[in-house]
Amino acid sequence: xxxxxxxxxxxxxxxxxxxxxVATAERIExxxxxxxxxVIHAIANRMTISVYDGEKxxxxxxxxxxxxxxxxxTADEDxxxxxxxxxxxxxxxxxxxxxxxxxxxSDYTASHACEAIWHDVVRPLADNLEMGA
Length: 133
What we know:
This protein is of the alpha+beta class and about 130 residues long. Helix content is about 45%, strand content about 25%.
C-alpha cells in the first residue's frame, strides 16, 4: 500500500537524484510538501478528497493519505475536489507540477474552506520554504 512516505512524489524524487538532477528533485520535494499540507489539513478538518488527473477521476471521496497520494502526481496536473463531512462540495485546488518550487497550486476555488487553506496553510508554508531556500 502506498503511504505518504512512499508515493509517486518520493519515487520521482529518488529517480531524479539517481540521475543527478538535484534541482528537479528539490522542486518536486517543495511540491510534495505543499500538496501534503493541503491534504493533511483537509483530512484533519473532516473533509474528503477526490482526485481528477485531467482525464479521469482516479479517487473518490477519500480520507486516506495513502490512497490520496497513490492517486497524485501521475500526470502533469491534478485537481483535488474537497467535500465537507456532510458530503457537500466546498471547493477544489488545481495542481500543476513542474512550474516552479512554490507554484504547484495554479488555481483554487474562492470558497471559505479553500481560502482558509490557502491563507492559513499554503501561503505561510510556501513563504517559509522560500525563505529557507
